[in-house]
Amino acid sequence: MSINKNNLELRQDPITKEWVIISPNRSKKHINIQKQKREVDLQNKDPFWDPQKSGNEKPSFIKPNIENWKVQIFPNKYPALKSDIKLTKNQNGPYNTLSAFGFHDLIVTKSQTQNFSELSKEDALLVFQGAKERYKFMQSKKIKYAMMFQNWGPTAGASVPHPHYQIIGLPIIPNSVLNSLNGADKYYKKNHSYGYSDIIKFEKKYKKRILSENEHAISFTRFASKEPFDFRVFPKKQIPEFSRTNDKILEGVVEVLQKSLTMLKKNVKDPDYNFYIHSSPLDKINKYYHWHIDVIPRVTISAGVEYGLGVEITVLDPDESAFIIKND
After folding, report:
1. Cβ partners under 8 Å of residue 325, min gap 6
2. d(CA 288, CA 293)
3. Domain-by-domain residue ranges, the chain?
4. pLDDT in tens, 42-66
5. Residue 164 among the catalytic residues
6. d(CA 130, CA 136)
7. Which of 72, 105, 187, 288 is the Cys-Cys partner for 195 at CB 3.0 to 4.6 Å?
8. CATH class of 33-326
9. Among 30, 104, 162, 164, which one carries the catalytic annotation?
10. How large is the greatest C-alpha to C-alpha distance in the chain, in angstroms?
11. With contact defined as beta carbons under 8 Å apart, do 316 and 8 qualify?
C-alpha cells in the first residue's frame, strides 16, 4: 500500500501528556523491516530446556506438574535485583542510593520454538496466570511495583533464543509510571471519566486503528504512537492492577494479544519486539488507572531528537500501521 505522507503533525498522549512527532515522509529511509532468522539452540546447549539441570533454582510456579511441565517460573540466574538482601538507603552528597533489593523472575515455556503467538491458548493463559501469582507474592514482600515483560529477538534485548518472559519487582515506583498514574488522576478530575476508558470508546468508534477485539479485551495502534506498528492491549473493564484480573477477562486479553502478535508476525515479517504490562503499583492501588500491555516492535533506531528531547519521531502513521498489521 502507499504511505500517507501528508499527515505530518505533533500528537500528545491524553494521559501522560507526552508529545510525539508523526512524520511519514521519513518512512522509507528509517523503517527497517527484514525477515528475521530465528535461531534454536540444541537441547544440550539450551539453558531452558531443562532449567534445573542447567543450574536454575527450584520453580516457584510450575504447571501442570513437574514431570510434564509446560510453564515454570524461577529466579533469574543473573538477576538485576536480589530478594535475599535487606533494603537499605544511603546518601552520598547529592546522590541517593538503595540496596539492590527486589525480585527478578523468569517465566519459561517448554517449547523451544513456540513464541507467545504460537502457544496453545491454555499454555498462553498459564504464562499470565503464573505472572499473577508472582505479582501477589511480591506484594506480600513489600515490593512497590512489578512488571512482566518479554524481550523477543536480539535487537529487543533477548540473549537466549528459547522463548521466555520476565518479571521484575522493584522497591520503588519509577518516574515514568508515576507520570502515567498522575496523568490518569488529573484526567479523571478534569473530565469526570476514566481516561483509558475514554480512549477505548473513541477507538471503537473510530475503528481504523483496531487490530483485534473480543468480549473482554481490545487491541489497537496508538494515536500518539512512539514507534511504527506499536500497539496496546486493554481489558475492556477498567481494572487498575493486573493481578486483580479474573481468569475470564485474562483469557480474553491473552486471546487478543495472541491474535495481534500473529498478525504482526505474518504481515510485518516477524520483527523483534518488546511487550510489557503497565499496571497500578502493588502497594497503593490507583483507582483511576487501567492496566494494559504495550507491544513495541523494533523496526527503527532512536537518535538525537529522541534522546535529547524525549520526543519520539514516528515515521509511520498509526492508521497505516494498523492497516499493514491486519493485511497481507
Report:
1. 211, 221, 229, 231, 260, 263, 264, 267, 268
2. 17
3. 33-326
4. 777 889 999 999 999 999 999 998 8
5. yes
6. 10
7. 187
8. alpha beta
9. 164
10. 58
11. no
